[in-house]
Specification:
Elements lengths: L15 H18 L3 H16 L8 E5 L8 H4 L3 H7 L8 E4 L4 E5 L3 E4 L2 E4 L6 H24 L30 H14 L6 E2 L14 E2 L1 H5 L15 H8 L5
Parallel strand pairs: 1-3, 6-7
Antiparallel strand pairs: 2-3, 4-5
Length: about 250
């Protein structure tokens, strides 16, 4: 069983001054569109880039839009689910995407909640912590693509294909997905220790899963692809993510 691990890449940190200038430029437009949340999302990115990624990433754009297709969500049911499903019966669901070609993270609009004239980061069932974890999930894709992939010797790894024209949402099927490669698994292991998540600190490659199931202490392929959502301690979100995902996400496997 392969259990890749990693440490921070051997890359010098980006200067705080350079990050601040770019953050001011990028967050201005976001704040005009979503007062309150537009600036906050960039501040959350800043904090996580410093604390978890060694300040090694350049600021990317962050926007709210159609990051995923919430085909089974209550939102879609109230806005014409039948019409939408007829147009895309096989489309999966997701909360975010990393677009390497444009260096942009897109987060689903359902992670925004309006309160009077301001917006806040908030999923209607899972709460604000979940919105921050969706950003973290996409920052992991950004880190792998923008920092680790450049110096990686894992070009033959089946999960490291060219993603220049497609996003990397959490909903992709496991076969050939960006969650099935040594770089993603190494980041899960590294950050599991840093964040003290539960459910196991080692992620198993999907092909390692035997007919008898995943060994104790090893994250299943689904838990690996949906990290950190299914590895947070009980009560971390405002609802059980498994119960929410049962309605909003397709089954993995």
């Amino acid at each position: 069983m392969q259990t890749p691990t990693s440490s921070l890449a051997d890359v010098p940190p980006t200067s705080e001054e350079a990050l601040h200038k770019r953050r001011r430029l990028l967050s201005g437009g976001a704040e005009e569109l979503h007062p309150g949340a537009g600036w906050e999302i960039y501040q959350v990115w800043r904090e996580k880039n410093k604390r978890l990624f060694g300040r090694q990433m350049q600021h990317c754009g962050i926007q709210f839009g159609l990051a995923g297709r919430a085909c089974r969500s209550r939102t879609c049911r109230s806005s014409g689910e039948a019409t939408y499903r007829a147009a895309c019966p096989d489309e999966p669901c997701g909360y975010g995407s990393w677009w390497p070609k444009g260096q942009v993270i897109t987060l689903c609009r359902r992670l925004l909640h309006r309160h009077g004239r301001v917006w806040r980061l908030y999923h209607e069932r899972l709460g604000g912590r979940f919105a921050e974890d969706v950003l973290l999930h996409q920052m992991m894709h950004q880190y792998i693509g923008a920092v680790r992939r450049a110096g990686s010797q894992s070009a033959e790894d089946p999960g490291l294909r060219d993603e220049s024209s497609e996003g990397t949402g959490l909903d992709r099927s496991l076969e050939g997905s960006p969650h099935n490669n040594s770089l993603w698994i190494g980041e899960v292991n590294r950050l599991s220790e840093a964040l003290e998540t539960t459910g196991g600190t080692v992620a198993a490659l999907p092909e390692d899963e035997s007919n008898g199931g995943t060994p104790d202490g090893i994250l299943s392929p689904r838990e690996t692809a949906l990290w950190p959502y299914l590895s947070r301690p009980e009560g971390y979100y405002e609802a059980d993510p498994e119960a929410v995902f049962a309605e909003e996400l397709p089954q993995f496997g």
